[in-house]
Amino acid sequence: MKTAIAFHPWITGAITLAILAGLTACATSPTGRSQLKIFPGAEVAQMGTAAYAEMREQQPLITSGPMAAYVRCVADPMIRGVGGDWEVTLFDDDQVNAFALPGNKIGIYRGLLGVAENQHQLAAVIGHEIAHVQADHGNERISTQFATQAGMELAGAVATGTAYGNQVMAALGVGAQVGVLLPFSRAQETEADIIGLQIMADAGFDPRESIDLWRNMNAAAGGDRPPDFLSTHPGPTARIDVLEENMPDALARREQARAAGRVPDCIPPRQ
Description:
- By secondary structure, the protein is mainly alpha-helical.
- The chain has one domain.
- The protein has helices at residues 9-22, 41-58, 66-82, 119-134, 137-159, 165-202, 209-220, 236-245, 247-259, and strands spanning 27-28, 34-35, 87-91, 98-101, 105-109.
- Strands 3-5-4 form a three-stranded mixed sheet. The protein has a two-stranded antiparallel sheet with strand order 1-2.
- Helix 4 (119-134) packs across helix 7 (209-220).
- Mean pLDDT is 81; it is low at 1-25.
């Protein structure tokens, strides 16, 4: 007769978290960073595709005319460079923003065209968004959220019934947000900056314009940002430092692209 072994909740929680943490060694990003990816890539891509289709149905689009043609002109050479089937949508909204979703989906908002002053700066945005998809950041974010929530629930079960249960859970909520989710997001943003710089340079765009772009983006935001440790994006200075550090390689890539005849010539439409 086998004897059942009962583990203390703390031990059970520790084992579960250790298994989840061990998954980080199972995936590596394009820059060599360890990633936590729990879900199948095909499943995450379906989620991204469904969300993208819903956004396209609910928001006004610009599908023809000079603006749409300009966005396609900038995006096409980078898409050819990375390969695969991509969908880029221009949303008719004045917010200064762009996004990427799993399944090779990218959204650009009309307001961004007033801040990205030329083809090179728009290429920096689109390259950055392509990089998010290439590095599978969507799967990583979902997996991190799932693992964090599972860990909090385990810790909550341990804390239940104690005089300090509510305080412990509140502390874990803050700790998880600042200590886990935000750093992962900042790491992803920095990684997308680096990979995006390479993508735009390989297509023949001038990577130096990426620095002016992020300066413009910060100015458009009014310079009113939370402290870096509470932000999902690196601060302007930190971001520019990363771009400058990786600029020599990007410039060499651009020279190779131009020598190969990749010289994009996209004219921004009048706003």
